[in-house]
Structure formats: C-alpha cells, structure tokens
Amino acid sequence: LATTSQPLRGKTTCKKIFWAVFPHACFILSLVIYAFLGALMFSHIEGNREVTLNEEYRIFLQNLTYLARKLTDNVTENEKMFKNDIRELFNTADPVWFIIPEDRWNFFGSLFFCCTVFTTVGYGNTYPVTRMGKYLCMLYALFGIPLMFLVLTDMGDILATLLSKSYNEFRKLQSKILASELCSGSTCSKRSELKSRAQSKIVINEPLTIMEVLRSQSGAKRRPVKYRNVKLFEMLIARESENTQPARNKSMERWSSCPELARGKTVSRVIENFDKIGKELEKLDVPIVLMVLVIFVYISCAAAILPNWERNMDFQEAFYFCFITLTTIGFGDTKLEHPKFFLFFSLYIMIGMEIVFIAFKLGQDRLIVLYKKVISFCAEKKMPSKKIYPK
C-alpha cells in the first residue's frame, strides 16, 4: 500500500502544481500569441505597401539639389547655409521618405512595434503609414493594452509575494540578531524553562482516552461532584472531537476518489485563482526606499549589458533608455540599431514595468496617507473649540 500510495501522491502534487501555474502561464502565453499575430499582420500590411512619391517629395529633391549647387569652398558660407536653409528644408521632410518598408516592417521589426503598442511605450520611430494599418493599430491597442495590464497585475501578485516574504524574513532575522545581542545567559535560560513548561502543559492538556479519564477521576474524589462531572464532560468532548477528525478525512478521501467531483474541485480552485488576481498586490507593505533601490539595481544591470550590442550607447545613455522604457514614457530620442536583439529583453521589460508599477502603487498609498493626515490636521485646526459654561 505504501508503494502504491507514493506514485499517487506524486501525481496529485504534480496536478496541484500544474493547476497553480496554469492561470499565470495562460496569461503570458496569450500575450505572446497576441504579439506574434500582430507581428504577422503588420508585416503583411505595412511591409508590402507601395512607395508612392508625391509632389512634396519632388519639391524637396529640387530644393536639395539647388542648395547643393550653391555649396562653395568657403566653410563659413556653407555653415551659414546649413544653419538657415538646409536645416529648414530637412525640417519639412517626412521621415517616411527615407524608410524602406521591407526593411523596417519585417517580422522582428513588426514584433518590436507590437511590443511598443501594448506596453504603451510608443517610441515614435516606427508607426503605421497606411490607413488600414492605422485602423488596425487602434483596434490592436484596444485589446492589447488591457491584456498587458492583466499580465502585469498577475505578475505583480507574484513579485509582491516574493518581496513581502523576503522582507518579512529579513525583519525576523534582524529581530533574532537583536534579541540574541540583548539577551543574557540567565534570562535566556529562564525563557527556555518557561517555554518547556508551556509545552509540557500543552502535552498534558491533550485529549485522553475514556479509561485515562476515569483513572484521573479516582484521584479527584475529594473534589465536589459537580466539578468532577464538568471536567469529565469536557474531556469526553475533546476526545470525541479528536475521533471525528479521521472520519472527515476518510470522507474527503472518498469524495476525492470520485473523478468527476475531484475535477470539479480543481476547476473551482482555478476559478478562485483567477478571482484572486491583484489581491496580493494590495496587501504589499514594504518601504518605498527599498523599492527605489530595487529599481536602481534592476536598471543598472540592464544598462551594463545593453551597450554590448548597441554601440551608440554608453552606460548613462542605456540607463536613461531603460528608465524611459520601463516608465512607459518613450520619447523616442534614443533609437535602437538592433531591435531584434532587444526583443530578447521583452521579459526584462515586463518584469521591470511591474517593479516600477509596484513602486508607483506604494508611492500612491503613501500620498493618500499623507493627504489624509493633512486634511485631518486642517479640519482639527478649523473646528471651533467648545466653550464650557459654568452651571
């Protein structure tokens, strides 16, 4: 029986782990599939568009040719011309004129664009040009942004649980170290004796059998009859409650042996997991300074790695780029030369956005507490003091 029960326990634990991980994997997998479908859609629409040269483009080329003919060997005159005429001319140019659609809107470029859409970063260097692409971009963002926020909320629960547990363990370790430093030998021995006595009391107060109860009553014959009956009744109830626990477990085993009922129970648990999304994030209470330190370390690690394939960036520029990305500001002033390598950083972006979101949530809670204190303080100051008249 023991050998057959071990594989069954292993299967049950694997099933529990699977159904516990299933909601989180479902959200992430749906977001990945949504991004890949969007990449295929935009690469087909924007990558295969026909490049039409309008009248504005022809006028731009004519003016550029005219200014190029006016260039001379005098460097000062060329600099004046560049500051005035050439700069104004290039300000009127459309960036779409200098983009090859097949190169910009390949699969990896389109996938990078989809990530910037549903993460609400929007760098601005890649955007749809065709009318159909613009309409589909609005529709894609309409469903993609809530899905991304759902994934962020779900991952926020996991990160909030890890942060709260690690912070609580750190506080417990800190309190133990302080207690060991402040505790002397005599006081510690007294505390250990008190703990052992308390444990012995707990062991004595465990439920006894009926024979043990009757034997204990023989030594208490000198006490009043009413007191003996009350003690006997309490001990019998304690013993009866202990006997009923295995019966409940057996009934649970019978109930779980039925596959239909067990399947219904697992489904209900999965539904409860979906309903609990965002609950752990609301319970998180860690210092805001700790979250700022985590964000700084997290961005610094990426800023040290990113210049390895982006040669136009140093540590400071990469730190600025990661901060602008994780806070979903996305100015677009810092451009990526190799966006397909940065796609491998998509998991980093999601986790980093969640860490920043948690920090913003904690800052929001602190601001609400501060506003409450200020409003209550102002209300107490403006409340008229009650005058006590003599009787």
Automatic annotation (TrEMBL):
A Pfam match: Ion_trans_2
SUPFAM superfamilies according to UniProt: Voltage-gated potassium channels
Segments forming domain Potassium channel: 92-159, 294-364
GO molecular function terms attached to this record: outward rectifier potassium channel activity; potassium ion leak channel activity
Biological process according to GO: stabilization of membrane potential
Lineage: Eukaryota, Metazoa, Chordata, Craniata, Vertebrata
Membrane topology: Multi-pass membrane protein
Keywords, in A-Z order: Ion channel, Ion transport, Membrane, Potassium, Transmembrane, Transmembrane helix, Transport
Name under which the protein is recorded: KCNKI protein
Cellular compartments annotated: Membrane
Broad class of where this protein is predominantly found: membrane
Transmembrane segments: 17-42, 105-123, 135-153, 286-306, 318-336, 342-363
Similarity comment text for this entry: Belongs to the two pore domain potassium channel (TC 1.A.1.8) family.
GO CC terms of this entry: plasma membrane
Domain of life: Eukaryota
